[in-house]
Design a protein that fits this description.
Order of helices and strands: HH
Strand content: under 5%
Helix content: 55-70%
Radius of gyration: 26 Å
Low-confidence stretches: none
Distance between the termini: 85 Å
Structural class: mainly alpha
Number of strands: 0
């Protein structure tokens, strides 16, 4: 009985340590990639989405009718 309780407790502790390790790994990877791809503007807190300066409509998806 006592052996079973200790066994259950040990498995829960192992699961907690594994969960903690995986979470730290994911957070570290996220922070590292954020620093890896950071620009001069994003490093000071300015986040912009670049937009195209010229747009050309073409292809079969842009079927326009002239009235």
């Amino acid at each position: 009985m006592v052996n079973q309780i200790y066994s259950t407790m040990i498995s829960k502790v192992r699961f907690s340590i594994l969960t903690l390790f995986v979470n730290l790994l994911v957070i570290s990877a996220h922070l590292f990639t954020g620093l890896l791809y950071a620009s001069d503007l994003s490093s000071i807190g300015i986040h912009v989405i670049p937009y195209p300066k010229e747009v050309k409509m073409g292809g079969s998806a842009f079927g326009l009718k002239m009235s």
